[in-house]
Amino acid sequence: QVQLVESGGGMVQPEKSLRLSCAASGFTFSGAGMHWVRQAPGKGLEWVAVIWYDGSNRFYADSAKGRFTISRDNSKNTVYLQMNSLRAEDTAVYYCVRGFGQYYYAMDVWGQGTTVIVSS
Amino acid sequence: QSALTQPASVSGSPGQSITISCSGTSSDVGGYNHVSWYQQHPGKAPKLMIYDVSNRPSGVSNRFSGSKSGNTASLTISGLQADDEADYYCTSYTSTSTPYVFGTGTKVSVL
To answer: What is the pLDDT of residue A11?
Structure first.
């Protein structure tokens, strides 16, 4: 079945780095735009980053620009989020999401999420 | 890019209809038909309920419907059921440097 499985979350100190991975299955990954969306404890959803199906375009939220990098390996059906210079406010559940439609704006398949805690 | 504005909470009795609003600007909701809605139960991942303002994905109940007027989109839940109790978020494509924006979220309570 269509599935996204995130991994790589954990507890990390401020200013350190972490890389999240998301393994896709059950659909043609190389044709899908992919997002990362996060949710801080008790807060709403925040879009983080998107990558086009072929990696040709990548866009970031202002909060992620310059610190986070989204990438993908279509041979491994995997999308990544490299997070550097982490801050306490980056503490959240990070969801990997498949986008569809124009600009991949609609998000129809969500992973179960991986938790990132930034704390000293 | 500021978040789209939703009411913090909406409530209704079983069987009633409720409407959740999602207010934006001409740079997002008002400028595109790229509005979608998501349902999120506690501790669960969000679920797509509506896309392209008013389209339902396969498997979503026809009790859920969407519309848009000007810079405001709306989600209506008719025949309210206990399982509809959840948080709901709208999102829109935007013409700003941040191409996607979520709403502030609405907690729906079934009395």
So the answer is: 98
Q: Which residues of A touch B34 (CB under 8 A)?
A: 101-103, 105-106
Residue A53 to residue A63: CA distance in whole angstroms = 23
- If you average pLDDT over every residue of chain A, what do you get? 96
pLDDT in tens, A23-34: 999 999 999 999
Name residue A83's beta-bridge partners. A18, A68
Greatest Cα-to-Cα distance within chain A, rounded to the nearest angstrom? 41
Window B:30-89, CB contacts with A under 8 Å: 34, 36, 38, 40, 45-48, 51-52, 57, 87, 89
Tokens representing A89 are 């406010």
User: Which H, E and C letters describe A68-98, residue by residue?
Assistant: EEEEEECCCCEEEEEECCCCHHHCEEEEEEE
Instruction: Name which of B40, B45, B57 is nearest A111 (Cβ-Cβ).
Output: B45
Confidence band of B97 (pLDDT split at 50, 70, 90): confident
